[in-house]
Amino acid sequence: MKVNLFLKSCWILLATVVLGLQACSDDDEVNGGGSIALNKVTLSEQTYSVAEDGTFSISFTVEPANAEVATASITPESLSNGNPFEVVSLSKGQNGNWTVSGKTTDLALLKAEQTLQLFLRQNEVGSAAASFTLKDPYTIDGQFEAHSPHTVSFCDVDTKKAMALPIVITSQTGGDLSKIKDYRVIVSDVSLTDLVKTSDFAFMTMKNNLGIAIQIKQETVDQIYAKATYIPAQFDVYALTEQGRAARFHVSALFATPYIYVDNEEMTFKRSDLLNKDFEQDIHMDLTDQLNRLGFTDGSTQPSGDKANFIEAGIFTPKGDLVDEVPEFILLMTQESEGKHLADVSISGDEQIPASGDYYHGTKIQWDWSFGDYTYPRLRGELRLNLKITD
Fold this sequence. Notes:
This protein has 391 residues and is mainly β. Helices cover 4% and strands 47% of the residues. It is elongated and about 105 Å long. It starts with a strand and ends with a strand.
C-alpha cells in the first residue's frame, strides 16, 4: 500500500454567475452574424446524483430557445484543490433543451453533497450560469474518524532519529474499515517556517492500526536539528477505497523541537556559595512557552491518563559532556488550571563543585500516546536550564 503526496495547487475562478443571469450583451444580434444572445438557463432539476464511476448528466433549457451554446464547464464552489470536474459532451435537443455530460477526474474529491456551477458560454455573444447540487450515493465521507496526539518531537533528542506522528482511522456511523485500501496526504500549510518545505515530509502506513504516520524526512531532520526549531503543519488526509473514493480528515500538527535552552538570571551562582554545604536557593520559573515548543500545547503535562515523565539527566558542559562534581539540583514541575507550566528549582551547595564556567541542567522528557491496544512514542525531548558559575 503506498501513500502519495499531492502538493496543493491554487486555482482562480474567473467568473461567477448565478441562476438566471442576464446575458453579457443586451443585443440579440452582434457582429452582423445573426447569433442569438443567451439570456437565461434553467435546469430541469436542482439535485443530481453521480454514478459509481463518477459520471453524471445535467439537462437544461436555454432562453431564447434558438440560442446556441458553444462550451460548458462545471466547477465547485471552492477551487482550493483544483477542479475535479470536466465536461465530456454537450448535446442539443429540441425547443431549447440541452444535455451536458460530466465526470469527476478524481473520485477522492467527491463529497457526499456539494454545490456545483454549470457555466455556459457562447462564441462572442454572452454567457449564463446555474447552480445545482451533486450528491454521491457511494460516498464514504463522514463514516470514519481520525485520531492523533497532534504533537510529536520531530526527532528523538538522544538518537536524532526522525519520529512519526500517528493518525489512527476508526469506524463511525457504520463505516466499513475493510474498504480503506490506500491513503493520500496533502501538506496544506507549513508556512510558519522556512526551514521545512512541503516536500520534506514522508508518509507511511501503520502496521498495528489502520492509519498512517507522518514524519519529517531524516535528511531534513539532520539539517534542522541544530536550530532547535519547531514546525507547525496542516495536513489533509484522504483514506481511499479501492475505487478511489475518500474519507477526508484535516489534521493540525506540531513537530516539536527535541530540546530547548532556558535562560534565567537567577541561575548564575558564585562558586564560593555553591561550595558551602549550607547554601540553598529556590527559584520559581514559568516554563509555559518552552514546554509548548517541546510539544505540551494542550496545556497539560498529564492529559488523558498518559503521564509525561521528567527524568533528571544531570549537569552538562555546553558540548554535552556530563559533569560529575555538581551541586544538588531538584526540578519540580507543576501545572496550573490556566494551562501554565510552572517549575520550582532548588539548588543546594556541595563540597565538590565544577570549575567556573557555563553549564546546563538537563531534564529528559518522555511522553507516549496510547490509543486502543497500542502505544506510540510522542515526545522524546530535553529541557535545558542554563547555569553559570562565576568566581
